[in-house]
Amino acid sequence: MSKRKQLIAGNWKMNGSLAANEALVGELLAGVGQPACDVVVCPPGVYLGQLQRLLTGSPIELGAQNVSTHDNGAFTGDVSADMLKDFGVRYAIVGHSERRQHQAESDVHVAIKAKRALAAGITPIVCVGETLREREEGMTDFIVKRQLAAVIHLNGHCVSEIVVAYEPVWAIGTGKTATPEQAQAVHAVLRAQLKAATEHADRVRILYGGSMNAANAAELLAQPDIDGGLIGGAALKSADFLKIVSAAQ
Ligand code: PGA
Does 1 reside within a domain? Predict the structure, then answer.
């Protein structure tokens, strides 16, 4: 088991509605009790105000799914880190593979987003991960190290304040989970890379994401360098999400 307080983050992606969110949060709050780990949900941006109202005073924290690379100004459609902060946002996912793929986010964009979040006092959850092809070609370590290196390069010693999420692209939404051994091996590579960058690498939480669910969470979370989970599909079902929360420490 990891030495760090674990973090279970729900990435709702582009799902939900005012009514569905209210029902889901109601179920989560009814069942979450006093969790041993940190718990955060990341709804679509338009619902941050609603979720702030529903979660205030509860043990569940609020996260965003993205943040602008800019501070403010003529950037139509963007939302800045300070704006997220206005809604009580504590975490922001940056560099999710769906944004790297569909919105052409580069390693440099992701590094700047992490920097903007940190400057606003928001913890970036920096996602890294290889595609199936990259894994088959033996490129996994190279890819995740390249992705994390950009964030380290731009953020220097502040990198001790980030959360990293290892999300193999082939495991996201596919039902194909990395084995605990596969995930731990990559987490150890990332930990070693962080150690070379900061003396506080031991406190950086490295989450696993990719088809984590109520049935496989405990085994993944028992690995020494797996400090929590970034949960997609299973975060939309309260019973499943709560089971993952209770599997964490
Ligand atoms: P999944 O998504 O749990 O549905 O695989 C994880 C993620 O994309 O963060």
Answer: no
